[in-house]
Design a protein that fits this description.
Blueprint lengths: L1 H25 L11 H13 L31 E3 L6 E5 L6 E3 L14 E3 L4 E5 L12 E3 L4 E4 L13 E3 L4 E2 L15 E3 L6 E2 L13 E3 L4 E4 L13 E3 L4 E4 L13 E3 L4 E4 L14 E3 L4 E2 L15 E3 L23 E3 L8 E3 L11 E3 L4 E3 L12 E3 L20 E3 L6 E4 L11 E3 L4 E5 L13 E3 L18 E3 L6 E3 L12 E3 L4 E3 L15 E3 L6 E3 L11 E3 L4 E3 L14 E3 L21 E3 L6 E3 L14 E3 L4 E5 L9 H4 L23 E6 L2 E6 H6 L2 E3 L4 E4 L13 E3 L4 E5 L12 E3 L4 E4 L13 E3 L4 E5 L4 H4 L11 E3 L10 H4 L1 H30 L1 H10 L9 E4 L1
Parallel strand pairs: 2-4, 3-5, 4-6, 5-7, 6-8, 7-9, 8-10, 10-12, 11-13, 12-14, 13-15, 14-16, 15-17, 16-18, 17-19, 18-20, 20-21, 21-23, 22-24, 23-25, 25-26, 26-28, 27-29, 28-30, 30-31, 31-33, 32-34, 33-35, 35-37, 36-38, 37-39, 39-40, 40-42, 41-43, 42-46, 43-47, 46-48, 47-49, 48-50, 49-51, ...
Antiparallel strand pairs: 1-2, 44-45, 45-55
Bound molecules: 2-acetamido-2-deoxy-beta-D-glucopyranose (11 copies).
One 2-acetamido-2-deoxy-beta-D-glucopyranose binds next to strand 32.
Keywords: Cell membrane, Glycoprotein, Leucine-rich repeat, Membrane, Receptor, Repeat, Signal, Transmembrane, Transmembrane helix
GO cellular component, one term: plasma membrane
Main location: membrane
């Protein structure tokens, strides 16, 4: 991808150069000599008008760039982006790359009248709709570029009629389905670019017949299955990329046998087994090899040392199964500039001096490998990005002192003690420093030492820092300092950091008030986490910047009202103020925040009703709503939950998962929320956090019926309405909440029967109906029957299993059968408990765990900490 991007840049640059040149020549060309054929000029003129954006420019000039300079009374062969055959006057080339063409390409488009086109480039325009079959009429095409448009639907099989085609670029579109079989006619094709196009199906084996191919790019699609074993028929192949698909099985070693192969990118698939590189001819031309994020296991093949041309090697997450890795196999690869061996699961200890042979390394990631670092200063002279996370390092690596090109340093999750050396901040290129999860206790040197650097991101969280916060330079965008022992007031100097985007100071001992300055200075502040400190005073309006996406000030002693200035934070997604002393009525105005996903007001002094006549609360994206333990009152209208879209339908949160390299230059923070589910308190982080959908209104004084609209929220996983004054019956429609895993209706005044329909909820692992006025038989159904007796305690007249009390005569007839069922259920409870002891959340949320496994390769973790309340 990187390569094609650069290529594209070079291409754009050279095209621009050529056109600037040809334009300047044309100034001197004779205006009399009209080459252009009138019918083709008219076709061009019409084509331009097909994409005219009506109302965009009142004077009738199209909104695009190149076509803007087309004029009627000049030779169309001289127009921007047009080339003609000098003999016949036919237009043979149309290049409107990135020309703001906007709209569908219709099958009757005048484009298809330019029958003699040999090269057509409409890349990077907004050409929506389906790619019409008529494209097959341009039968002399050699080069076709439609990349970076918005085409969708199937790739038309008429493409197979373009038998002169040598270059085809359809990448970055929304095509779907498989490649048409007709493409096996394109036997002159040399470059096929289909990256990021949403294509699916097996590897298109007809490509093996296109023996002229030098480049195949199928990256970032939805292809699956195994690759054909004999790929050496593609004997001219130079570049092969299938990264980011779901290919599995062993990787065909025949590819390594292709002598011209230079670029091989297989990352983020499910290839498995050991890798056979085979008996390659030496010297190998392979320069780029990425195998990251697959299921390769076993030893790293020794023959990798024959790939002496490699400059880029990514083996991250290869599973060597805790075996010993002989790192000397890499010593032959002297041209490497990029080497990623992170998390290869070895128990070997490596002496970093082994890497002193790699003079050109600019990128090195050895995370997860036990490292021994000798103090040689001659290591890695040109290193720019160095990641040594979780390497069991105990001392700050001194050899870095002379690394004047180092811009990114991650030595997080080691056991380094003492002070952060002063010289670190003097490294002239250093912009990113992650020293989190160590035992650092202070900063060496004067107080302003960091301030003199040009650092952009500092992560010092989870250390033992105690001093007041260090002074930071104006360049700081991301400061992560949570879980240390910082104390005193949050210094006002932090307000002067005009580019600050993320400030995380949770879990420290800060006291005093929240600085009243973010509104004024840090207008770009988007993440402010001050959770779990000893901040007091009112929650100031002036602490809110309009750009906030995530605000967490929970577990402090803040008082006063919720700042109204939040109303201007239209990007706000996450708002957590739990466990403070905020005294306010329900913030109805929050409904104006279209992106709000999480609202936690738990354990404060909020009061009054949460509904208001004439105000319809609709939270289209809200997933977590926790207003428990406040003093809210009133009856909830029947339609209260009607507009809560995110909880009533599946939203694709998977798309938002960060890829492996995201976060390298951003404040990689995690929102987290603690909640009570299944009688347990747990903390949700990562993907657990993004898929949980919960409503907790417990511990208030709500009365009246449970609003039936709750049953619209089909995606709800946890519902807690306990400890209120709800009356009436339990709505049978609760059975619509088919994803529900935890239901707590205890300590209310509910009456009538437990609706038998609830027995159908198969995921409902935990429920509590105790302390109500319920009566009648407890419904059948494995989940209900396996509850602890205490879940039904203190009611008027519940009867039947699992209670001892029988429901009159009927019970006895069925005893025998039920005894069997009961035994089965008991077994189930037992195994449930056994599993719970091993891995409590696992049992609870089989679904969620499945999700995590499937999304592990996106580097997305969920950790659930739990303890019994
Ligand atoms: C240019 O010529 C075409 C076809 O002859 C005509 O439809 C169009 O109106 C002309 N445009 C201008 C700006 O003269
Ligand atoms: C692209 O085209 C689509 C459909 O024609 C339109 O909805 C969208 O606004 C366009 N995008 C841009 C950036 O012009
Ligand atoms: C092309 O077809 C569309 C409908 O598909 C029609 O609206 C348009 O007028 C046609 N254009 C020409 C030039 O025939
Ligand atoms: C290719 O062209 C031939 C004749 O020009 C036509 O009959 C055929 O349908 C075309 N094939 C495709 C796949 O469009
Ligand atoms: C490849 O070409 C051969 C001979 O032309 C043909 O028999 C075979 O079906 C083709 N394979 C594919 C996958 O198109
Ligand atoms: C693979 O294809 C090549 C070239 O077509 C052929 O020489 C070779 O025998 C094939 N190998 C296997 C194992 O089919
Ligand atoms: C590998 O190739 C070399 C020469 O190209 C040959 O001498 C050797 O026997 C081959 N090894 C194997 C295992 O095929
Ligand atoms: C940082 O910005 C502030 C306010 O704009 C300015 O007063 C200060 O001099 C700057 N500091 C440095 C080190 O540039
Ligand atoms: C804040 O903490 C500092 C040191 O921890 C202490 O000296 C000071 O009295 C505290 N201030 C308040 C208002 O509690
Ligand atoms: C929201 O922003 C506008 C314009 O900046 C401002 O006038 C208004 O007072 C702000 N509202 C609140 C509640 O702060
Ligand atoms: C710093 O490293 C830790 C541990 O490896 C990681 O969890 C955290 O996301 C990193 N910080 C940033 C800002 O990337």
């Amino acid at each position: 991808m990187m390569c094609s991007c650069c290529e594209r840049k070079v291409m754009i640059w050279s095209l621009c150069f050529i056109f600037c040149l040809s334009n300047s020549i044309l100034v001197f060309a004779s205006p009399d000599k009209h080459l252009c054929r009138p019918d083709q000029r008219d076709a061009l003129w019409e084509f331009k008008r097909e994409f005219y954006v009506k109302g965009f420019h009142s004077n009738g000039v199209a909104a695009d760039k190149k076509t803007k300079r087309w004029t009627n009374n000049t030779d169309c062969c001289s127009w921007d982006g047009i080339s003609c055959d000098p003999k016949t006057g036919n237009i043979v080339e149309l290049d409107l790359l990135s020309s703001s063409l906007n709209g569908p390409l219709r099958s009757n488009s005048s484009l298809f009248r330019l029958q003699h086109l040999q090269s057509l480039d409409l890349g990077y325009n907004n050409l929506s709709g389906i790619l019409p079959d008529s494209i097959g009429n341009l039968k002399y095409l050699r080069v076709l570029n439609l990349g970076g448009c918005h085409f969708h639907g199937k790739i038309p099989s008429s493409l197979g009629n373009l038998s002169y085609l040598t270059g085809l670029d359809l990448s970055i579109n929304d095509f779907n389905g498989e490649l048409p079989d007709s493409m096996d006619n394109l036997n002159q094709l040399t470059e096929l670019r289909l990256g990021s196009t949403k294509l699916s199906g097996n590897f298109p084996s007809m490509l093996l017949n296109l023996s002229e191919l030098t480049l195949i790019d199928l990256a970032s699609n939805q292809f699956e299955g195994m690759l054909p074993s004999n790929m050496s028929r593609l004997s001219k192949l130079e570049s092969f990329s299938v990264a980011g698909n779901s290919f599995y099985g062993s990787f065909p070693s025949s590819l390594f046998m292709i002598p011209s192969l230079f670029y091989l990118s297989l990352g983020s698939n499910d290839f498995s087994g050991t890798l056979e590189i085979g008996n390659i001819s030496s010297p190998s031309t392979l320069g780029f090899l990425s195998l990251v994020e697959n299921n390769f296991n076993g030893p790293i093949p020794r023959s990798i040392s024959k790939l002496v041309g490699l400059f880029y090697l990514d083996l991250a997450l290869w599973n060597t199964e805790r075996s010993i890795v002989d790192f000397s196999i890499f010593l032959q690869l002297k041209s490497l500039t990029f080497l990623d061996l992170s998390y290869i699961n070895t128990r070997s200890m490596v002496d970093l001096s082994l890497f002193s042979h790699f003079d050109s390394l600019g990128y090195l990631d050895l995370s997860g490998i036990n490292l021994k670092i000798s103090s040689s200063l001659h290591l890695l002279p040109h290193i720019g990005i160095l990641t040594l996370s979780s390497c069991n390092i105990v001392e700050f690596p001194k050899f870095l002192k002379t690394k004047t090109s180092l811009s990114y340093l991650d030595i997080s999750a080691n056991q380094i003690e003492g002070q952060v050396p002063e010289w670190l901040w003097r490294l002239p290129m250093l912009r990113y420093a992650n020293i989190s999860q160590n035992f650092f206790s202070g900063f060496e040197g004067s107080a302003d030492i960091i301030q003199r650097s040009q650092i952009v991101l500092i992560d010092i969280s989870s250390n033992r820092f105690q001093d007041p916060l260090p002074l930071l330079p104006n360049s700081t965008k991301f400061f992560l300092g949570s879980s240390n022992g910082f104390s005193g007031k949050i210094p006002r100097t932090i307000c002067e950091l005009r580019f600050l985007d993320t400030l995380i100071l949770s879990n420290n001992n800060f006291n005093g008030s929240i600085p009243r300055c973010f509104e004024k200075f840090n207008t770009k502040l988007s993440v402010l986490h001050l959770r779990n400190n000893s901040l007091s005073g009112i929650f100031p309006e002036e602490s809110i910047s309009d750009h906030l996406r995530s605000l967490d000030v929970g577990s402090n002693q803040l008082s006063g009202e919720l700042p109204k200035s939040l109303i201007n934070c239209t990007r706000l997604e996450f708002l957590n103020v739990d466990d403070n002393k905020i005294k306010d009525t329900f913030p109805f105005w929050l409904r104006l925040l279209p992106n709000l996903e999480v609202l936690v007001l738990r354990s404060n002094e909020f009061h009054g009703p949460i509904s208001s006549p004439g105000v319809s609360l609709s939270f289209p994206k809200l997933r977590i709503f926790d207003i428990s333990d406040n003093r809210f009152i009133g009856v909830l209208p029947l339609d209260y939950f009607a507009g809560w879209g995110a909880m009533s339908s599946v939203l694709d949160t998977v798309d938002r998962m960060p890829s492996r390299f995201e976060g390298r230059d951003s404040g990689n923070y995690r929102n987290s929320v603690s909640m009570t589910a299944k009688g347990l308190k747990m903390e949700l982080v990562g993907s657990g956090f993004t898929i949980y959908k919960t409503i907790d209104v417990s511990g208030n004084r709500f009365e009246g019926d449970i609003p039936v609209s709750i049953s619209f929220l089909k995606e709800l996983i946890v519902l807690n309405m306990s400890n209120n004054a709800f009356t009436g019956r339990i709505p049978p429609s609760l059975a619509n909440l088919s994803n529900l895993q935890s239901l707590d209706l205890s300590q209310n005044g509910l009456s009538g029967e437990i609706p038998p329909e609830l027995g159908k909820l198969t995921f409902l692992a935990w429920m509590n109906f105790s302390y109500n006025n319920l009566e009648g038989p407890i419904p059948q159904g494995t989940q209900i029957q396996s509850q602890n007796i205490s879940s039904f305690a203190e009611n008027l007249g519940l009867c039947g299993a699992p209670l001892q009390k029988t429901c009159g005569g009927k019970e006895e007839e069925a005893t025998e059968q039920e005894e069997d069922e009961e035994k089965e259920e008991k077994d189930q409870v037992l195994s449930w408990i056994a599993a719970a002891i091993g891995y409590v959340p696992g049992v609870f949320c089989g679904l969620i765990i499945g999700h995590i496994f499937s999304s592990y390769k996106h580097d997305w973790f969920m950790r659930i900490f739990h303890y019994l309340t």
